[in-house]
Write a structure and sequence with these properties.
heterodimer, A: alpha/beta, Dihydrodipicolinate Reductase, domain 2, 2 domains, 7-stranded mixed sheet, 6-stranded parallel sheet, 11 helices, 15 strands, B: alpha/beta, 12 helices
Amino acid sequence: MTATTPALVRIGIVSFAHHHNYGFATGAQTLPGVEITAVWDEDPAAAAAAATQFGTSFDTDLDKLLARDDVDAVIIASENVNHARHAIAAAGAGKHVLCEKPLATTAEDAQAMVDACERGGVKLQTAFPIRFIPASIALRNAIRGGVIGAPLAVAARNPGTCPQSWFVDPALSGGGAVMDHTVHVVDVLRWIFDAEFVKVYAEVSTRIHDIPVDDTGLLMMKMSNGIPVSLDTSWSRPGNWPTWGGVMIDVIGEEGVLSLDAFADVLEVAETGAGTYTWRPTDSVGDAEMVLGFVNAIRNDTPTEPSGVDGLRAVQVTLAAYESARLQAPVTIAT
Amino acid sequence: MTTHAPPRPATPNELSERPVRLAVIGAGGMGATHATGIKDDPDVEIAWVVDLDLPRAEHLARETGARATASIDEALTDHGVDAVLIALPTSWHRIATEAAARAAKHVFCEKPIARTSADGRAMVAACDQAGVALMIGHVVRFFPEYQRIKEIIDSGELGQIATVRASRTNPPVQERSSWFADVEKNGGVVLDLMVHELDTLCWLFGDVDRLFAQGLTFTDAQPRRDYAMASLRFRAGAIAHVESSWAHSTHRTSIEIAGKYGLIKYSSDKASTLTIERTVALNDKLDRPARVHSRPAMASPHLRELRHFVQCLQTGEAVLIDGAAGVRAITLANAVLDSMRAGKPVFFNEDGSVAA
């Protein structure tokens, strides 16, 4: 094997319940030495359509996909509560796992996934593409390079439109906007600052949509390095907003401020026929880079980044936020 | 001799016949902004400029056609003075307001009303007892964007309000104004900037049920930078994030309001109708910002605010921002500081006082 012909990694796609898997699969297809060899979805029509889209075959039975010799690894994007069942089954079948965020809806499930992958001798990576967006990497380098001196405080937001469907069914999603939008920013800040979140105070409510889960959330957190962080997780973007939402992180430092607006690099597109006005990304949103990180960890037998434990930590912060909102008091985050 | 007759506040009848005679107490930044802004208004005559720093008072008095003095009593015992404009360090607001009320002068006082809620309540009582008007200079309510937002919120167009983000950033002030930066005396960025948002948000969304805050005010960073973030939960249910900064490079305000039926966003740096960019040769240093935003169409909010006060004196109508509103804002601001210090939420009673 030479550097120009990377070892082949064959991927099975497990569920398109979260549409992110279309992006991950598309990203995977751009990578040399990566093949999508099978797809599965609970909905056979969705599986068949995806198989056509990605030029591969589909299985109607997940166990069959997991038993295939031509699948080395799976990318899972089923409903949040099903991540654990699917990941543990994959680990049992000896398949490496890249799993959509949030890793699970309980800390027990997330820990069980970490344990199962360790037992099965397979990699577990949590799908946090924000880490792989070039601007996030540049932000991390700028902070570590002292561009704004000592970092002192962080104001962040991950607002979005309401995704509806199973996302608003607590039996499948485990929660609403706070479950959906806490983990990205928590993960990228843990990575940027090499620190844990130790405390959270949260306000959580349902005020925009007629849904049985929360759509409005504000988290006031503290990191182990003492830096205070605020995070707005709300599904506050109206349905006709020009994009799905965004990830914005302001870092206030001793000598200045760094502002990340991860999805700001867009074309504004107005179409008179459709009567739409939308923002479309001009460049990477991190998907291909994230899958590349995963397959390289498999090829080189190196630790995954973000790991399963990184996914677990973000889940723990999310659950502590819900607990804080219930108690109307700050909660210390279990680690 | 008529000097023993108790002083009597000027009435709307009197003040609709002639200009309101104003004593400007404090000739610093805000005093000068107000005085120079209103000096040509036909309804106002600036009678006195008072400052302990007499040359500073004289300078502003020359610009505004007033007399200068270092003695507040000299201005307050002048029966020709109808009203005072107090633009002193916050911790002096109470003593100056009480003195003005005793002298039966109407009072316009810069924000925040006082350093403590108790001082603020004493000012309200003194003015009520003397029968003089008291208005607090929460000028943000006179900015056109916030007035337009108020109309939209009150119209119900957005439906139930869900989440609000309000931000106000400035460069560090510590180096240029030391009294300002003294946290114990003046409360740092929370009493300087966040008090604006606290007043504006209560005006828009009603009273606050609880809040939680964190930031740099009580850290080692504060002498050089100050920064605060607060989470507010309104009685009506909406959640707000308020950011106040003395750590940015420029002045900027923004607000975003999301409700059941839509979203409003405003950012001052996007509202520039005239932007001036200066180019320089490579490696040259700029002594001024390279890029300046401006809104030439906007009448000065400080002038609008002061004109509103003068009109209320002339008509006898209630001022838009009374002492109670000032007390509410300072009670919230002090609760923000308390929450920051203790790391705990602060809850409020129905009457706006802090719950035990």
